[in-house]
C-alpha cells in the first residue's frame, strides 16, 4: 500500500463526508478551493454554511510533503529529513446552541527513514451537554473501535480526555470522543486494516452527527442560549489556538492558514468572569466538562 | 531599590492609569477584583466597559513569585530556582471601529541569583489605519524614549515590528509601537532611571490614547465598519493566543486565567477567505500591516 493510495482513500472519504453533510445541513452546498503548498503538496478545502443547519463548516483534505524544517523540529515531534503527511480534517459549527460542534481528523505520516503512523480523533463539543446524546455518540465510536481492537475504545477515549483538555480553564473541550496517534501495524491489525479503521471512523462521522442534529434541532432557541453558545465558541478558539497540536503543526509547517483556521467559529465571545446561575443548564454543562466521565453509562 | 518598592510604583501607576482611562471613557468606572496566586503573590484586576468609549478594557497589576517550575523552564526563558515578577498590563477594546485597540505592558523580573531586568511594550492596533494618527502615536513614544537613551526608540520600534507580528498571516498586529526586554542598568541609565522610564511610558499611555479616541470618535459608524472591526479583533485573538509571550508565561506560570485573558475582545469574527474590495479602506489597512514602516515620516 503506497502513500499515494492512502492519500487517494482520504480524498474519496472527503467526497463521501461532504455528500452526507450536505444532507445533514439540508440547504447549502460545499464550495471548494484547491491550493498548493509552495514547498510541496497541496489540498482541497471545502466550506459550507448558510441558512441550513450549519453556520460554518469545513472539510479539508491535504497531502503535503517536503523537507523537515528546523521550525517543525522545534515545534513538533517530527524527526528525519523529509516527511509526507495526508489527512482529512473536519470542524462543523452549527447555528443552533442545542446542536454540538463536531470535529474529526484522520491522518497518515511517513518519514524518509521508512517510519509511518496513523493518527486521528473525533470529539463532540455540545454547547449544552445532554448525557443521553453523549452516550449515543460514544457508543457509536466504540462499535467502530471494537471491530479492530477490543482495547482501542478504552485507550483512545482516555487519550481524548487528556488531549481535548484546556489546562488553563481546567475544562475538557466537550464530552470528548477518541484520540490516537503513532498507530502502527501489529498482531491485531495490518497497515491496510488501520487505514480502513480511519476510513470507517470518517464514514461514521456524518451518521453520528446526523443523530445529534436531529435531536438538537427540535429545541427552542433563546437569546440566552445564543449568548452561551458564543462563550463556548470562545473556549473552542482557545483550545485550537493554545493547545491543538494539529493547528500548531499546520501553522509551523507552512500550511495554508485559511484552511487550518477554518476550524474557528464565525463568531465568538469573551466575557470577564461570566456569572453562571446555580442549577442552570449552563452550570450542568460546566460540571460535566471533566476528564474520566464514563459516557457509555450515562 | 527593592523589588517591593518597584511593585509599589507599579501599583500607583495602575491607579493613575485607571483614573485617566475613566476620563477617556466618559461614562463607566473600573471594577476591581483582588486575587491571590496559590503558589505566591497575587494581583488587582480592574475591568471597565459599558456605554462609554470602551466596550471592554482591563488594567492588571500583578506581583507573583515562587519556584521556577519545569513547565515554566520549558515554555519561557526563565532560569534559576525562584522568580519574582511584577507588572502592569493593559488592553482596551473600544466600541468604535474608528478608535484603535491599545495595549501596554511594563514589567520587572528578578531571579534568585540576583539577575533582574525590565521589559515592556506599547502598541496600537487600529481597525482602520490612519497614517497621521499612527505618526502622532509614534512621535509620542519617541519623545519619552529620547529622554532616556537616544537609541531606545529606533531599537525598540524595530523590536516591536518583530514581536507584534502574526507569522501565519504575514501581517503585523497593527501600526506597532515599542517593545523591549532584558533591560538592565548601564552607563546611560541606572536601575532607578529604568523604572522611571517604564512608569513614564505608562503615564503617557492614557494621553496618547485620549488623542486617538478624540480623533476616531468623530467618525460615522456603519455595519461594514463593525464587521471589519470584528474580523480585526479575530486577528487580535490569534496574536494573543498563538504568539504572545506574556500570555504564554501567564498561562504556564499558573497565573489567573481570567486576568490574563481579559485581553481578548468581547466579540470576534472569523470568515473564511474574506474578500477585500480593491482600493477600499480595508485594503489600505491591510497594505500597511507591514514591518519596517517609518510611521514618524507619515
Helix content of chain A: 40-55%
Average pLDDT, all residues of chain A:
95
Q: What letter string, H or E per element, gives the SSE order of chain A?
A: HEEEHEEEHHEEEHHHHEH
Summing up helix and strand content along with how strands pair, one would put the structural category of chain A as: alpha+beta
User: Largest interface, with Cβ-Cβ < 8 Å?
Assistant: A-B, 29 and 29 residues
CATH class of chain A: Alpha Beta
Q: How many domains of chain A?
A: 1
Strand content of chain A: 25-35%
Number of helices of chain A: 9
Q: Tell me what the CATH architecture of chain A is.
A: 3-Layer(aba) Sandwich
From the spread of the alpha carbons, the general shape of chain A counts as: globular
**Spatial extent as radius of gyration of chain A:** 19 Å
Low-confidence stretches of chain A: none
Largest sheet of chain A: 7 strands, antiparallel
CATH superfamily of chain A: Coproporphyrinogen III oxidase, aerobic
Predict the CATH topology of chain A: oxygen-dependent coproporphyrinogen oxidase
Oligomer: homodimer
Number of strands of chain A: 10
Structure commentary:
Two copies of one chain form a homodimer. The model of chain A has no long low-confidence stretch (mean pLDDT 95). In chain A, the strands form two sheets. Chain A has a seven-stranded antiparallel beta sheet with strand order 1-2-3-4-5-6-9. Chain A has a two-stranded antiparallel sheet with strand order 7-8. Chain A is an alpha+beta fold. Chain A has a single domain (3-297), classed as Coproporphyrinogen III oxidase, aerobic (oxygen-dependent coproporphyrinogen oxidase). Chain A is globular and about 55 Å long. Chain A is built from nine helices and ten strands. Chain A has helices spanning 3-25, 70-75, 131-148, 152-163, 191-216, 223-243, 245-252, 257-260, 281-288, and strands at residues 31-36, 41-48, 54-67, 82-94, 101-111, 116-125, 165-166, 171-172, 176-183, 267-269. Chains A and B meet through helix 6, helix 8 and strand 10 of A and helix 6, helix 8 and strand 10 of B. Strand 10 of chain A pairs antiparallel with strand 10 of chain B, so a sheet runs across the interface.
